[in-house]
Specification:
6-stranded mixed β-sheet, 4 helices, GMP Synthetase, Chain A, domain 3, 38% helix, alpha+beta, two-stranded antiparallel sheet
């Protein structure tokens, strides 16, 4: 009897763990397709653009063939900033059945064959702006971008 109870407890914990894990969804919307096209037209270095949603954040991954210079990094960031409107983010949230604002958008620019010692370039912006008091949430609507590395 005790063995059976332990088995059911273990199975229950596994089911709860799996249910709590966030799924990653590829994002295919008209606005994402347009962004992908714009980014690929920036430079022949841009080899692929993929956006995915893992609640509560959207990640746009831009792969480049060689290490990008500052001008290309700035151009990619400007295009993604222009794309990061409330309308586009809400469209994506509806597409993936997320009933809230996308909390954060991340931009990751990485080389196809990155040397081991180098890091991808990462930027992010949030729906909310957190002041000194984290209990106070102001809407920033993805306007303030920061570089993570």
């Amino acid at each position: 009897m005790r063995t059976r109870l332990l088995q059911y407890s273990f199975i229950g914990m596994v089911v709860m763990l799996l249910a709590a894990c966030s799924q990653t969804f590829p994002v295919k919307t008209a606005s994402v397709t347009a962004l992908s096209k714009e980014l690929r037209e920036l430079s022949p270095q841009v080899s692929s653009v993929r956006c995915s949603f893992t609640r509560p954040e959207l990640t746009c991954r831009v792969n480049v063939s060689t290490d990008p210079d500052e001008q290309l990094l700035d151009s990619i960031l400007e295009k993604v900033k222009a794309f990061s409107t409330l309308d586009h983010m809400d469209e994506i949230a509806r597409k993936v059945h997320w009933n809230d604002h996308i909390w954060e958008i991340r931009l990751v620019i990485d080389q196809d064959r990155r040397p081991e010692q180098s890091q991808p370039y990462e930027y992010s912006a949030s729906y909310y702006r957190y002041n000194i008091n984290p209990a106070v949430q102001e809407v920033d609507a993805y306007q303030t971008w920061s570089r993570s590395n």
